[in-house]
Amino acid sequence: MNTFTLKYKLFTFFILLFFAVTTNAQKDSSFIKRISADTSKLKMNLDAVYNRPFLQMGKLPIALGGYMEINTNYSGTNGVADGFSFQFKRLTMFMASTITKKIKFLSELEFEDGTKEINIEFAAVDFEFHPLLNLRGGIVMNPIGAFNQNHDGPKWEFVERPLSATQLLPATWSNAGFGLHGKLYRSNWVFAYEAYLTNGFDETIISNTKGKTFLPATKQNRDRFEDNFSGEPMLTGKFACKRRRFGEIGFSYMGGVYNKYQMAGVIIDTKRKVNVFAIDINSTLPKLNTMLIGEFAWVMVDMPAAYIQNYGKQQHGGYLDIIQPILKRKIFGWEKASLNLAFRTEYVDWNVGSFDVTGDKIYEHVFGIVPGISFRPSAQTVLRFNYRYQWQRDLLGNPATRTAAIQFGISTYF
Amino acid sequence: MKKRSLSLSVLVLFVLIISCTKLLPPVPKNDEVLAGTIPGLSPQHEKEHLKGDEAFGRIFSKEDGLGPIFVQASCSNCHIENGKGHPSTELTRFANVNGTVIDYLLSKGGPQLQQHSISGYSAEVLPAEANVFSKRVAPAVMGLGYIAAADDQSILNNADPNDANGDGISGRVNYVNPTNFFTSLPIHIANNGQYIGRFGKKAEKVTIQDQVVFALKQDIGITSDFDMQDLYNIQFGNNTGDNVPDPEVSSGFVNNLVFYLRTLKAPPRRNTFDADVIAGENLFTQIGCASCHLPTFTTATSDIFALSNKVFHPYSDFLLHDMGPLLDDGYIEGTAAGFEWRTPPLWGIGLAKNSQGGKLFLLHDGRATSFEEAISFHGGEAASRRTAFGALSQPEKDQVIKFLGSL
User: Fold this and answer.
1) Is B122's Cβ below 8 Å from some Cβ in A?
2) Residues of chain A contacting residue B86, judged by C-beta atoms under 8 Å apart
3) Mapping DSSP to helix (H, G, I), strand (E, B) and coil, where does residue A51 land?
4) Taking the C-alpha atoms of B121, B124, B125 and B128 in order, what is their torsion angle to the nearest 10 degrees?
5) What angle is formed at CA B63 by the lines to CA B58 and CA B68, rounded to 5 degrees?
6) Backbone phi and psi for residue A346, each to the nearest 5 degrees, phi listed first
7) CA of B16 to nearest chain A CA: how many angstroms apart?
8) Cα–Cα separations (whole angstroms), residue B307 to B39, B177, B299, B301
9) Under an 8 A CB cutoff, do B62 and A398 touch?
10) CA-CA to A365 of 20 to 30 Å: which in B63, B285, B292, B381?
């Protein structure tokens, strides 16, 4: 079977499964339960995979859920318009089941840009031995920063994912592996840790058609779920803490060897590592209810000797979202609707350093701002209107190319 | 009421979307960019040009044959924005000179250093025997189609190897052996099987295609139908490191690149009506800069109609000149001595900063960081012109500089 028909069949299977569940629901509304996200406990980015609305049928042990994102895009660079397009960004479906009380399974399947890309974003089983000790195995989401773990479209006020998540870090980034996670509650505080060993990056991060160090390039490697390119596991670890009415802060690390340094047991190259550090914050200011969500990441890559400087040894970047609810009441008959103003500032520097020959600074960076308005008829659905403006400079820092985009999008859980 | 306000919001949204054009960034001023096609191209030609543009920007990786040793991974990495290059991408040629005998050290990886390599493979290092070095910064690639369309006679007209006219300038053409894929056109005049070179810092390339094929191989390590022999680190071992079947690009790819370069517009000028710019150009001619930096040429008949019989202003004579000891790097290339350089076209030099990261890196190796400094290195045949420039009053010098900035 070629990959296209395989994709097509998978896609149809999930659509049918979903409709089977929901049409049943219409016949007998007591048969199907909508499990809304549990808000009683302090939820962290770590919990995002399970903290989603699900539909459960009767006594069936499976709950289903998902979300979709569609938007319009009108953009242009330096006066040349790319034209107007509708973009069906993604359709994601989750399937969760509680196998026994302390064994849970969740999978997340994503169809991106129609059926162009189909990814298993997450498919892992969790064994709870103790709240502080859970074993997770499968395709896990590497907890680097917060966006990667908490990326569902309907949770965000912006049409585009942050540049630092797509152009610096490879959101969504998941890999086959195992690890531990746990949480500790202390009055108003909760502390959490996660540590996984997974497959890692490959050499395309420094040899690709982008012409720059580009971690997301490894996502194109279709073999990466069954074959670890470097032969060494990658470690991802995160520590986060949250205080009620204050917010969450996370510190994370991800790193490992990315090149093939041995073949048939023979050393063929020196081991080269990629290291990533990230800080993420998530807070709501008291009284004003202003939400602040941000993340900053640093990437360090060991380069082969005599490599062109177009590929940076160091990179960094991040974003800060400020979201201000301005109306929270019944609007157009929707009980808990809200209207928000949103503003994102973002930055990615793909090549931090200076030229060996001249000592001048290397640029290769992008800076963007995105003001927007979002309307949420309910917490699970968002209509958002964004205006994006970004300045991108080349390696030498020549005059920036300016890109703007006007985007209207809908994202909703179903 | 509710329905009304809902419809109203939807309406507002659509109005916003329709008025979008206003919110997009403006086009940079046409006379400040180094991209775009020559006037008068047909839509098919424009399409061809875009294909070439893509080829020019293509970044090669090890999977598509880059290297295994190379200088850069893409045409546009050196010719950023089609403009003048930056010292970070400079290339080095090397040789051993012993008296009058030059050895290009071909068995040691000469004549050009490929200082970079794909991962897991060693780059070249300068061999101990090398004692002369020539460093070169990439030139701008604008307007090359016009230069290629001029006939040999128009270049020969200005040659004066024995300075018969006594103006102190004795430019000569560089006759070179044609490549094995060269086809002579009516514009070419053969001389004992050799042809006039007009491209390259030593006027050592006859056609754009010669330069494209040469650069693909020597600078990027890419083989093509025109040159199937890959480049290896001889210091490491021949036929190692690159397992991509040759040719690594098709003749179509090479043709696209050639077409792109033929149809890139000439660099646009700015402030041509400014009184200082006009006065500056007059001084430029008066003090004899224009003896080499010749303002005007006309193309011959060309297969591309838009290039046929067109007047263009390169500010170059495409001849080799003795530039004196300061610019002598001792590296002999063909018949060109170390002190001989082809007059570089000055068109587009006013926009060099926009492709060199806000600074200027002038002359063949980028050593001069201002127009004045570039002039100060002019020796040999150009020494009298340097002196004449030095003798100008400060306001006059400023006018010449302003003129150069308008190019």
Assistant:
1) yes
2) 355, 358, 396
3) coil
4) 120
5) 90
6) -145, 160
7) 9
8) 9, 26, 7, 8
9) no
10) B63
Residues B229 and B240 sit within 8 Å (Cβ to Cβ): no
Cβ–Cβ gap A357/B73 under 8 Å: no
Q: Is B3 helix (H, G, I), strand (E, B) or coil?
A: helix
Q: Could you tell me the residue ranges of all domains in chain B?
A: 40-406
Which residues, 6 or more positions from A138, have their beta carbon under 8 angstroms from its beta carbon?
A122, A123, A124, A125, A176
Residue A309 token pair:
């400087």
A189's enclosing H/E stretch is strand A189-198
- Residue among B6, B28, B116 whose CB faces A306 most closely: B116
- Measured in whole angstroms, how far is the alpha carbon of residue B252 from the centre of its chain? 22
List all residues of chain A from 6 to 45 with a beta carbon under 8 Å from chain B. none
B164 to chain A nearest CA, in Å?
43
Compute the distance between CA of residue B272 and CA of residue B402 in angstroms, rounded to an integer. Answer: 10
C-alpha distance from residue B270 to each of A38, B218, B267, B350 (Å): 65, 36, 10, 9
Encode chain A (414 residues) as per-residue pLDDT tens digits. 454 455 556 556 555 555 554 444 444 445 556 666 654 456 888 888 888 888 877 777 788 999 999 999 998 888 788 888 899 989 999 999 888 889 999 999 999 887 788 889 999 999 999 999 999 999 999 999 999 999 999 999 999 999 999 999 998 899 999 999 999 999 899 999 999 999 999 999 999 999 999 999 999 888 888 888 998 999 999 999 999 888 999 999 999 999 999 988 899 999 999 999 999 999 999 889 999 999 999 999 999 988 999 999 999 999 999 999 998 888 888 888 999 999 999 999 999 999 999 999 999 999 999 999 999 999 899 999 999 999 999 999 999 999 999 999 999 998
Domains and CATH numbers, chain A: 31-413 (2.40.160.10)
B90 touching A, CB under 8 A? yes
